[in-house]
Predict the 3D structure of the following.
Amino acid sequence: MSTLQVDVWRGAEAGRFQRFEVPREANQTVLDVVTYVQRRLDPTLAYRFACRVGMCGSCAMTVNGVARWTCRTHVAKVAGDGRLEIGPLANLPVIRDLATDMREFFDKWARARGSHAPTATRRDDFARVPPASPARAAADAGIECIGCGVCYASCDVVAWNPDYLGPAALNRAWTLANDVRDGARAERLRAVAGDAGCHACHTHMSCTERCPQAIAPTASIAGLKRATALAVLKGEL
Amino acid sequence: MSPRAEVKLWIAQRASAAVLALCVVVHLVVIVYAMRGGLSAAEILGRTRGNVGWLVFYGGFVLAAAVHAPIGLRAIATEWLGWRGRSLSVAVHLLAIVLAAVGLRAAWAVFG
């Protein structure tokens, strides 16, 4: 049986890669490899996962330098030479080993006004939103984000400017800006405008390249730039 | 700086970029035309002196550059040097004034 040489990050911000030998299996995922290390070789390894099928977004790590969902990444795809380097997501504080502290990531969703502000009461009828309307289509394009942090870890601007809200929070703001039922549009556009918001994006498109859900946060951010500019010109911001 | 002011800067930079895109193309075509045609400095001045069209074109070019460059440098200074606040604002305003003054002086020199 062939083996994989796996270098796994150990420690917090300061630490080092530790090498493990892991048996190669058919249809093996990177999460399988990490789980093997923790169950068979070193039970002190810290990592995070839940669903194992690409629904929860909790198992994202840096695999051979690229942020990925480990559960949906086959070893065959990324370790042609039998080597794997597995680290925690970039741009987030490391708690221990492969587990990052995602509080700042989600706090930025709140800062980008990423919560729905309802305008209807329980006595109102259901909102009727035509699925083909341009606003709904724009919201649909970004709605499937599950908050895994892959885009945030891949973003150069987040690395340079720690205040930058990041692709996921801005994408969330864009889906809500296109929700006709929402009542906080102006407040949200104010929250996402400026040097820490959509205007800091350099359009490198790493987020769009790496998003496992095939969402294009870059397009959402461009939408926010247009929307904020229009709001200023109309005197609404 | 308020979000509204930052969005205004962004609009100004995009709008000035659109003007610059056009001006740079015209400017390059003029350079190639003048060099290939073998125009002397005196012949070039003969065409620009008293020509309001060239004055307006190059005046607009200069003003667009004076708007565009300081806004871009402000973003770079913030991102790469961590320079923020009032001192940065004063510095980029000064840069805008210097660029506009030097450029307009040159445009005026070939007009007058």
